[in-house]
Amino acid sequence: MSGGCGSHPSKWQYTALSETPLQFYSKEIKSRSFIPPPPPPPPPLSLSLFTPIGSEFAIRMSSGELLGIEPLELKFPFELRKQISCTIKLTNKTEDHVAFKVKTTSPKKYCVRPNTGVVAPGSFCEVVVTMQAQKDAPPDLQCKDKFLVQSIITSPGISAKDISQEMFTKESGNKVEEVKLRVVYIAPANPPSPVPEESEEGTSPRTSDVSARRALLGQSDNNSAETASMIAKLTEEKNSAVHQNRVLKQELDNLRREIAKQQAGSFSLLYVVLFALIGILLGYFLRK
Prior knowledge:
Helices cover 36% and strands 24% of the residues. By secondary structure, the chain is of the alpha+beta class. Strand 1 and strand 2 (56-60) form a beta hairpin. The termini are far apart.
């Protein structure tokens, strides 16, 4: 036991020789301080792979992995008694051929062309959705209609005519990707009021507008003069035609009178000749 401290210096004594106590304690505190673990990574976007949709099971995703769909909201500027169209762009994001089918909750209200098709790798297809003319507007322009775009990987030789509903069911064995689209009605923009534009000073119309109006007024005056001359000419032709009609009618009446007189004169002469012949015959018989 003797000589332990003198012959073999302790750790504390050795440390004191190389650094001060304050530096030593600071180093110990730092080495023993708690470092929190890094936060866990965020979960993937698609957690539920097979979600039942009615009687079918399909891959549910927030954004399409097979087809890029734009836009995800179909916006229609709503107007009564007017057809309105909207376009959906489907882009193939894979190296395979992708077949698609577009469904809606209101098939009688919307017309989708084409509703089925095949998109080649790296290409796109545009689908036109036309809303039929509506007689009544929904309250506050709220719409609950939705569209569903289904897509599957298919063989290169298939065409749009070969696509059937059975290809997008569970029994087909295909992994169906589905993306829902919302329908949004937008109030139409108000037409601009017909207020004449003013100059920078805000007091008088622009010079171009004034000259245009003057040109229109001069043109209207020329048109009025041409119209008046044409009306006068037509009136004169009408009066001339009426006068000729009267003259022809008068000549026709005179001709009829002359014909009547000639017929009356020939009728009386015929009676005279007839009575003369009868008298001659009577005298001849009486002499016998």
